[in-house]
Amino acid sequence: MAMTMSRAGRTMEDTTSSGEFRVRRHPILPVVERREIAFTFNGAPVKAYEGEVITTALFANGIQVFGHHQRDGSAQGIFCANGQCSQCTVLVDGLPVKGCMTTVRSGMDVRSCEGLPALPAEDRVPAFKEIPTIDTDVLVIGGGPAGINAAIELGLLGIKVLVVDDKSEFGGKLTLQTHTFFGSRDDCYAGTRGIEIARILTRRLETLPSVSVMSGTAAVGAFRDGIVGLQKEGNYLLVKPRAVLVACGAREKNLAFPGCDLPGVYGAGAFQTLLNRDLVRPTRRLFIVGGGNVGLITGYHAIQAGIKVVGLVEALPYCGGYKVHLDKLRRLGVPVYTSHTVVRAEGANKLEKITIAAVDAHFRPIAGSEKSHKVDTLLIAVGLSPVNELYEKMAAYGIDCYKAGDAEEIAEASAAIFSGKITGRKIARSLGCDVDIPPEWESTAAILRSKPGRTVQFEPAKLEKKVYPIIRCIQEIPCNPCADSCPRNSIAIDGESILNNPVFKGDCIGCGNCVAVCPGLAISLLMTDYDAKANTSLLILPYELDTKDLIEGRKVDTVDMEGKAVGRGTIVAFRTSNIDAKRKIVSIEVPKAEALRIAGFTVLEPEAGGKGSGAGESISDDTIICRCERITAGEVRAEIRAGVRDMNVLKATIRTGMGACGGKTCTELILRLYRELGVEPGEITLPTNRPFVEEVPLGVFAGVESNGGAK
Fold it and tell me: Mean pLDDT in the chain?
């Protein structure tokens, strides 16, 4: 097909619809009909779905470059899709907005931001309107699992609560999670998908008469008089609470390497937002940096949507996420490179190729180990940082404030659920309520926050039974759905803690409940004597990908739990799970001698990659550190070598942290440069955070009417 280009970097296949980039079929997510509307981008007509944000609509039309920077003309694309950075700035009806936080309207005129936007001509002084003030007992900032559960605990006690969230729907990152959750079934919905947990919690919140909610509302500042400022749809509001809970979650950490600023290099959370929330397929060929749970889970989500995951690198000698998540990727055919990192990203106006390399014990790239891969997207999943600026400011001002969830400590969403419950009751106590906090809640929360523990050697038992489960959950992680689901109580957690490994204790009726409910897809059923004449066994496996290739009689390449080739099998049948309608149960016939080794079958063809070169220093001087102001590592190093130890001085001299994100994406990278140059943390003065923690147009304070809230 013909390609069209524009100054805004528009690369769009010449097509009359955006269907190619839309997810039309998904094994987990419902694909429903939505009303189509039209707007314009740089004067050209573009179609969108009602309720979408601008960046999603542009991605759905093949547009991933939203403008060019005023300093060097570099292409600007998405990075966080969470309102934490300013990469996606566009002009709406002449005014700059964050594309990821602004909903499309029919007829909206969207333009790429080419350099600095011009100030609108104003021939009048607006008449300032009175700013409304809301009184409440508790203000909860953040409608994710921690904030919602705290509000539920407070609402059950009749305490007046206002919950605000800057997204259009509540649930936080739960709304992006298509996988089933770990933890305890009784305590935190283990075995239930994140998207369903979000609905369950939101429905509970809506039943409480003393709880009010405001979506599309950002808390933008806290002040010495105990007032908190909110921005909602172009309006400014003040809240006067007796207590505040900050449960804003986390932002993704950045990573610096040459080309890290290219469009196509962005956070895993942004990818999940586009794919799982908005049903837009933003990539064809994907590579992932980071072997924690976020990176591993995101890779699995991509494969569910039919996206080629070319590989994953992790700088440590091991992946820090759950082994069951890692094993899922390896079984499906994704190459995982530990003790490796990305050393370069390349492309003209957008990512086209990356180079990876092995690293030594000091995480320095090893020359000669480079490999190159052609990809259009590189996901950064190298950890999270708490969004806690408001909490720190409130604490400094003496406001009665609390934090919960990732704003308190980075952990799994199941831990955030308990963190919210506990903190909600602590707030109730501070307001004079005589309420109990069960001591077991704290211990449960600690377990749910725990990192993966000991991994034992997998030793499949060869039992004299017609059917029995093979359990490949061999790492200590908090999880118990398999034990709870067995009707014969034949699967038990080894010991009292749900961190311990599950074990099979004898009797199996072949119901498959354990296969259907295991969050890690780590349990299969073995029917030992399927065809005595052919000397074959039947393996019954969980499956959550598209079923179009599950054809009876099809031959598949079988693999062990870590993705190593075993042999060949034949698909016999598949059915829908009796517990989870989104999970399929696939039966494959395999040679009896291989049955105990087989954990699944591969669906991707692994790629070795081409020969690469150029593994130099990990952060070269020309690497962009501050995205907003396009400040390089060399510029920062020059200031550090000149003796600058106060990051507020860096803001004044070279403008790091002066951009629209307020230092959210560059501060940790600058601290890394200080460490590399041997500067001790105690010598460094961190930048001072001041209101406002995100952009607030001046017209909002004046009460100037805006077009649909775009300012």
Answer: 91
The token duo for 363 is 């995480």
- Structural domain of 489: 467-601
Q: Please calculate the CA angle 703-709-711 and round it to the nearest 5 degrees.
A: 75
Does 325 reside within a domain? yes
The residues, ordered by sequence, that sit 6+ positions from 191 with a Cβ below 8 Å of its Cβ are: 180, 181, 185, 481, 484, 485, 517, 519, 579, 580
Q: Which residue has the tokens 């409940």?
A: 513
One-letter identity of residue 655: R
Alpha-carbon distances of 224 from 236, 368, 650, rounded to whole Å: 18, 57, 27
Token pair for 200: 């369950």
Element containing residue 540 per DSSP (H, E): strand 536-543
Among 362, 382, 402, the domain boundary falls at 382
Tokens for 11? 């690369």
Split into its structural domains, the chain has a count of: 5
- The string of pLDDT tens digits covering residues 635-676 is 999 999 999 999 999 999 999 999 888 898 899 999 999 999
> E strands within 191-307?
211-214, 217-222, 228-232, 235-246, 250-252, 265-267, 285-289
Q: Are 567 and 591 in contact (CB under 8 A)?
A: yes
State the pairing for strand pair 235-246/502-504: unpaired
Query: pTM for the whole thing?
Result: 0.92
Q: Does 366 lie in the same domain as 277?
A: yes
In this predicted structure, the answer to whether residue 9 has a pLDDT above a threshold of 70 is no
Whether 506 maps to a domain, the answer reads yes
Taking CA atoms, 293 is separated from 8, 26, 69, 419, in Å, by 35, 22, 33, 19
Contact yes or no for 135/240 (Cβ under 8 A): yes
In this structure, the dihedral spanned by the alpha carbons of residues 663, 53, 90 and 711, taken in order and rounded to 10 degrees, is -80
